Amino acid sequence: MFRERNATESNRQRGVCRRQLLRGAAVGALATGVPTAAGASAGDTTDGFPPACHTAYGDTARLGGGEVRTFTAETAEGRPRYHGVEFDREAVTGPLPSADELAADRTGESPTYDDKYSATGEARSVHRRESLQFFIPLPGADGTPFTFVGLNWNPDGHPGGGGAWARPHFDVHFHMLGTDTIDAIRGPDHAPYDAIQPEQIPSGYRRSPPSAAAERYITDMGEHLAPADAPELPGTPEAFTNTLVQGFVGVDGEPELAFVEPMLTREFLRGFEGTERYGVPQPAVYPHDGRHPTAYSVRADPDDGTLTVALEGFEAV
Length: 317
Hints:
This is DUF5602 domain-containing protein. By secondary structure, the chain is mainly beta. It has helices spanning about 10-15, 90-95, 100-105, 180-185, 265-270, and strands spanning about 55-65, 65-75, 80-90, 115, 120-125, 130-135, 150-155, 170-175, 205, 215-220, 220-225, 240-250, 255-265, 275-280, 290, 295-300, 305-310, 315. Strands 4, 5, 6, 7, 8, 9, 10, 11, 12 and 13 form a 10-stranded antiparallel sheet that branches.
């Protein structure tokens, strides 16, 4: 089972030169929470996405009728270019376990979903709702603070935002701390710290109100902060399609920005075509001195039937 910061050398070699496909078309300027025109992201070339011969694939999870895998891509000079998750289209469109099925599996004598480090994942009660959870390593993650992906399928959504996120959706947590640290988090509960300083908070984000303080800190995740201008806030789940939250974890009693998390509804992904790119709002102060993403993208590949969610635009901080 994966417990270390980086994947093994065999993972780093897996999938090199996996495909040679063509992409094209430039995108417009980024805007927080607003997609650009469809097309390849800045710097994409004709060697496919993720770029062939510069991409390492991580472990594979089984979901729906397909598979999900993590990947890391570098430039030819060895600088970080993408961290991402690649879904077979069938992983989104195929049969996914319902909340009732996950609850029955979690309490049954012979569970199918009993290990979040395995290919089948673990049925968990997260955010007080049923969820299927995977911890998947990011291969070759040197040069950025990111360590692994926590992927959740939430068949009934989860609480928060006055019901804003009650639709069936996927959470893709790009974590910056080790699995042992995240695995030890229990909630919902009060965060193990009081204040988060304004300069630590990404631009345009805010904490949940004091009335919800006892629900802030979530099992296997930490505290989530949402963009104040998310269209589904407050309490408008029909407007929820694709929102980036960012989150904090208590480290030695202090809050630390520790994950970047696209939340994407199943409906959004099932019908997605083309490419959209979004800005990742930045804090004034970072908890690391690596390269931090300034954008994330969602891409559909009609040639191999995959969907990808990727962090990109890494810049030194």
